[in-house]
Write a structure and sequence with these properties.
Blueprint: H1 2-16, E1 40-44, H2 57-61, E2 67-73, E3 85-93, H3 102-106, E4 112-114, E5 129-130, H4 132-135, E6 136-138, H5 139-145, H6 148-151, H7 153-161
Parallel strand pairs: 1-6
Antiparallel strand pairs: 1-4, 2-3, 3-5
Bound molecules: iron/sulfur cluster (2 copies).
Length: 162
Amino acid sequence: MITAIMKGMYTTFKHIFRKEVTVPYPEERLPVSPRFRGRHFLVVDDDGLERCVGCELCAVACPADAIYIEAAENTDQARHSPGERYASVYMIHMFRCIFCGYCEEACPEDAIFLGKEYELECYTRDGFIYDKAKLNLNVQAAAKQRPEVLERLEEDLSRYHR
Ligand code: SF4
Ligand code: SF4
């Protein structure tokens, strides 16, 4: 009995002076892996135009049927994207999403990216349906999560403005 107690105390004291392996989340957050893919965003370029042209390729590629898009025509009076059309409605159902990244791979406009955010908590089911108000992100803020956003910026601008 005494031996067992001594063994237990030895084990306890052995760990008291060792470095902690746990992190006091949320006060402290560990950096995520460069390969981590979290919450999506839709890129809005410096000229105020959304990169998304409403082509729906991301929705077709999505294996979880998590993306819903309604496309509309741009006009000279109201232009939202550089293309002929834009996504008047763009929604992602985050409960359905499996974060596979196929939507990002399918996008011909480098408009949608999976970012580094992983805190998606919400108290309502509707709160997990992300619309453009939640998804749109300016290019500088987007580049902080995914620098690749900027890599193709010059190429995109020259394509649309030549
Ligand atoms: S990450 Fe995958 S499951 Fe989620 S919206 Fe994109 S394609 Fe669909
Ligand atoms: S995010 Fe990309 S693939 Fe999806 S509708 Fe917009 S332009 Fe097309």
